[in-house]
Amino acid sequence: MAFGVGVNVVLGFAFLTVGLFASILQYWLWTFPMVPDPTGVDPNGITTAPRFWRFTHRVLGYLFVAFYLILMVQMVPRIWQYSLEGWTFQSVAHAALGLMIGLFLTFKVLILRWYQQYGNRLLLVGSSILVCSIGSILLAAPPALKVLNHPGDETARQIILRNCTRCHGMGRVVGESEESGEWHEVLEKMEKFASKRGMPDPSAGQEERLAAFLSRLNPHGQVDEEWGEGDSGGRRRRGRDSDD
After folding, report:
1. Which of 41, 125, 148, 201 has its CA 20 to 30 A from that of 192?
2. Residue 183 and residue 211 in contact, taking contact as beta carbons nearer than 8 Å
């Protein structure tokens, strides 16, 4: 079952919070000395860290994996629905970091279960997971929060959150700065694309409301706004509105 963007943002921050606590605890646990493993299974020895905190770290690890799997169930099916134009550097980087987290988690499980001789690499693997998690959330959360918190037509907002994310991320939405009339052209293009794929009308018959909301979300010319002197000595914008 697919969750809404707002739910996924909450899950993302919960995922990152658990990861931060688990990482901080991991760094502390690594300060305890190692003693020889009496079973001889782990050549690096076993830790003398308190059993309670080792158990707590394990529980946090399970929670982290659970949040990760839930988020991936939301993300992976959408990847195959994305149009070529729907991909941006932001969405590519977000997807890549998400997949890298899974790769590092797999390495960690393999080391813990079967390759204990590489146990001295666990701190590096855990740090890599944390870095990827922070990067992934920082890429995905701000655009979604901008749409969620922008005042305006609630019906239009819900259509955008529900329908536009089928084919691209929120970064694509907040990165555009068309005027209302130009948004009509974009929405018509989206409708044709959805029709070819047998998908529901992404505008839900509310093109006027969507165009108005989107044009206010990121006003025309705001993305690249630079001021210079015009021929008449007045000030003019240079960027999307420039004749250059």
Report:
1. 148
2. yes
Q: Report yes or no: 196 and 137 within 8 Å, Cβ to Cβ.
A: no
Alpha-carbon gap, residue 235 to 230, rounded angstroms: 6
User: Residue 49 in contact with residue 29, Cβ under 8 Å?
Assistant: yes
> Per-residue pLDDT for the chain (244 aa), expressed as one digit of tens each?
456 777 888 999 999 999 999 999 999 999 999 999 888 778 888 899 999 999 999 999 999 999 999 999 887 777 666 665 667 788 889 889 999 999 999 999 999 989 988 988 999 999 999 999 999 999 888 888 888 888 878 888 888 888 877 777 777 777 766 666 788 888 888 888 788 777 778 888 888 888 888 888 876 544 333 323 333 333 333 333 434 4
Q: Which residues pair with 229 in a beta bridge?
A: 235
Question: How many Å separate Cα 152 from the centre of its chain?
Answer: 24
Nearest to 135 by CA among 172, 103, 77, 96: 96
**Alpha carbon distance 89, 171 (integer Å):** 9
Rounded to whole angstroms, the Cα distance separating 212 from 60 reads 44
Domain residue ranges in the chain:
5-142, 150-220
